[in-house]
Structure formats: structure tokens, C-alpha cells
Amino acid sequence: MGKETGSLQRRGFWRNAQSLWQGMALTFRHMLQARRRRAPLDIADPNYFAHQTGLVTLKYPYETLPVPENGRYRLHNEIDDCIVCDLCAKICPVDCITIESVKATEDIGETSDGTKKRLFAPMFDIDLAKCCYCGLCTTVCPTDCLTMTKVYDFPEVDIKNMIYHFTDLSPEQAEEKKRLWADQQEAVAKAKAEALKAGQQKKP
Amino acid sequence: MLALPFVIFLILGVVVIIFYAERKLSAFIQDRLGPTEAGPYGTLQFAADILKLLQKEDIVPAAADKWLFKLAPLVIFAAVLAGFAVVPLTPTLIPSGTSLGLFFLLAIVSLDVVGLLMAGWGSNNKYALLGAMRSVAQIVSYEIPAGLAILSVVIISQSLDLQEISFQQGLHLRQFPGYGQETNYLFGLKAWGVDVTQVGGFLTWNILRMPLLSIGFVIYFIASLAECNRAPFDIPEAESELVAGFHVEYSGFRFAALFLAEYAMMLLVSLVAVVLFLGSWNTPFPNLGPVRLADWTTGALGSWSGHLWAFFWLVGKALVLMTVQVWLRWTYPRLRVDQLMHLCWKLLTPAALVLVLLAAVWRLFMI
Lengths: 204, 367
Known about the structure:
The complex is a heterodimer.
Chain A: H1 2-11, H2 13-33, E1 75-77, H3 87-91, E2 97-103, E3 119-127, H4 136-140, E4 146-148, E5 163-165, H5 171-202
Antiparallel strand pairs in A: 1-4, 2-3, 3-5
Chain B: H1 3-29, H2 45-54, H3 66-83, H4 101-122, H5 126-157, H6 162-168, H7 206-209, H8 213-227, H9 239-242, H10 252-277, H11 293-296, H12 304-329, H13 337-365
Pfam family, one (chain A): Fer4_7
Protein name (chain A): 4Fe-4S ferredoxin
GO cellular component, one term (chain A): membrane
């Protein structure tokens, strides 16, 4: 206390009064400048940094700053291009991607970059409530089907709605694909067993 | 009896205005928008807040001293409300026109301290108790410079009656009983002989009837900020150090009552400052030759226009002072306890003592 009081006294009464007045003048200027407001400008706009005085708050739901085209917010999976390789689920640091896969009985087409698709995805869920927007999944994705979009405003009342289901199979279809694969495996096993039997019968 | 509902209406109305103004001004000072959603420009935000406070659960901590805890908001608000009893609203409307008005006011408003201590002690919470202790130390200390500044006004006006002090500061001077021969001289200097009795306006306000009272006004204003726990003297409820100070355990309507008392106290100290220093319900415009600004903005004693003009000037000046309080709050940082005491005891109190002496000399030789 002693030291500060000393400096207070050394600075003198008028200096203090002056600095108090400067503080009042500063806040008063801000009050007057409240007539001006910042406009919702794009960051690319040349006037973006020109706004130096006045209110800086935006009335958010009504006014928003435009997001650049390459903004990286909500994940989107283009399921037609997905080869269900599971790399995204493995690299995800917060485990927000859940994938199930069912092998197909035949080739089921190609992705847009020409990779063959051999797996169905009965479940491809992304829990965006957990997602930390690190973007690792989009970098490992071999077919670039997983991207981050510029949509950043997607609140939900029920947190369950934050789980996004990207599969294009209905549960019935998924069951059917599973059954088809099982049937095919069974048929192959049967054929193998019969071939083995036939071979054994020939030998002796 | 007319005055009581009038005073309550006045308090609530002004509290609503200043509550809204405080939010908007603080927002503008910080380059924000403030409330915008409830009503046009957020004007109904206060109603939303009151509804929210009313429907909140009334929580009394299990370990609290229940009687003290429940009674404290009542004591605090009653003390502040009682202070309004002697404040003149217009030349002929005053809730209680006692000749000891100012004395009563200082005494009854001091009860506020008891309520604060009850709240802090009754909460059985160390932060609440610390806040209450700080509050009591601060208010008791600052009553001294405030009281001395008021005393210098009393010396000049030779009266404790707030209505009498009001009459002395304007055109109606000679209409007060027993004042038929009184005269207001410019700056209170009888030797100069400039008679401003019929000029009125700000020339007959106390800060110009005895120019040194403008220093008294500054001292009183600073001390009154501390009396109503306003920043920069808000250490009793220093949010960053004490959670919320003495009212940390209060919820719902009890909290609302404490809050209302704080704003009512702001209004009361502003009204007292206006009555004592800034011409009370008298117009600020002087009569200049044929331009009878003061006459036009005063109205006859006891008439409707007289009531309305007087009320307008009184509340208008008080609102200006309250706006300054808000402005100060959002400009200056909170004082530390030792800085607070340093300001009170080493600066304001000696200055106020000198002022009392000068006022007495002035009264003897000038007026």
C-alpha cells in the first residue's frame, strides 16, 4: 500500500483528476459511437477491417457473417462414394463415427473416382455432438466421400438428433444383404465340402 | 396519504427506466448491443426478468439464521423507502413535511447497514459475511464525508427542512412562510448587490448561492456512490472476489427486493443531491430580461402546471445524476479496501471539514 500511495501522491491531484476525466471521456465516446454498427460482411470483403468504431455485436440468428466456401464445419458423407473401409472410424480421436459393414455377394458398383465398392454399410452414424471438427477423417478418406461442409448452425432440441445416419439401406434391406451373404457363404462351403468328398471318393 | 402510492409509483417507474438504461449504456460502452429480444429494442426485458425472479424458488439455506435471513431484505427496503418520506416531490406535495427532514433521512437510511449485516450474518456463509462486513465498514465510513457535505448545505440554508431548502433555490422563495423579505444575491455575495431573486434558474441553485458548495456536491456525490454500493465502490458485492457478497444466498423475490432497494437507494441519493445542491424542483433556466424562461418553465404555486413542471425538473435532474452513476460504474475499476478508506478518510473527510468551516464563514459574512 505504502508504495502505491506514494506514487499516487507524487503524481499529484490534477494528474489524477485528468486521468479520471480521460476515462470518462473514453466511455462517453463509445456511448456516442453506438449509433454505428458493424455490417455482416464477408471476410474477403475489402471493408471487413474498415469497421473500427461503434457496436461490433451481430444479432446472430438474424444477421450472420458469411462463411467462406471452404469453411470446415458439419461433416457430410456422400454414401454413394463410400467404400466402407472404416479408416475414418479408426482415426477419429473421439470415436464419433460408428460403422458396420456387410460384404456384398457381387460388385455393387463404382465410386465417382472409379474405386470398386464391395461392402454395404448397414450402419454409418456420425455423432456430431461428439465431433471435435479436427478433420482427420476427411484426410484419411481414400475416396474423399467424407467432407466438412460450411454448415455450422445445426442445433437440436433432442441430443439424439445430433446422430446423423448416412446409410442408404433400410433395416430390412440390411437384413436381406446379410442373409444373401450368409447364403452365398453357405453355398460356397457346401460346394467346397462336396468337392472335397468327391476327391476323397476318387482316391482309393 | 396521496404521497405514498405516488412515491412507490415513482420508485418503480424510475427503477424500470434506469434498469433498462444501465443495460443499454453498459452495452454501448462495451460496444455491445444490450437487450434486443424482449419487446422493441429490449424494452420489456425488465418484465421478463421480474417474471423470472417471481417464479423462482424461495430458498432459505438449512444452516441459515432463518429469522435474520428472511427479515433482512425487508429491513433494507423499508429503510430506503422510509427515506423517501421527507423528499419533496413538488412545491406543495411532500409525503412528510417535517422540519427535521434531513436529520430523519440521514438517520433512517443508516438502518440500511443493519439490514446488510443481518443479511450477511443470517446467510451463514463466509462470503456473505465478508461482503456484509465490507459493506458496513464502507457505508459507515462514507457517511462522514456525506454528512459533512450535507452539513455545509444546512449551514448555508439554516434549515433541515428539505422543502424549505427547495424554496430557497428558486423563484418561489418569497412564497415560503416567513420568507417575504428574503433575497437571493448572485453567488451569495451581498456586497455585490446583484439581486437574482426573480431571475431564478440555475443562478439560485445552492451550488451557485455558495459556489464552494459545488465542491460539496462532488464530495457528496462520491460518498453517495459508496452509500448505495455502486461501482467504483462496490466491494460489498465484488463478484470476482466474493461470489456476490452479502446477497449470495438470496434467490427469487428476496433477491429482487435487495436489487430494488439498491436502485431505490440510487434514486434516493440522487434526489437528495438534487434537492440540496441542484435546485430541487426549480427550473434550470433563468429569466433573462424579457425572455422569461424561468416563468415559462415553472408554473404557479399549487397549480397543475406547477406540480408537473416541478416533478419534471426534480425527476429529470435525478435521472441525469443516475445516468452519471451508471456511466461511472462502467468506466472505473473497483477500488481496493485500503484505497477506499484512503479516499474516504484522507481526502474526502478533510476536504468536507474545510468546506464546513468555509460555509460557516460564508454564512456569517456574505449572505
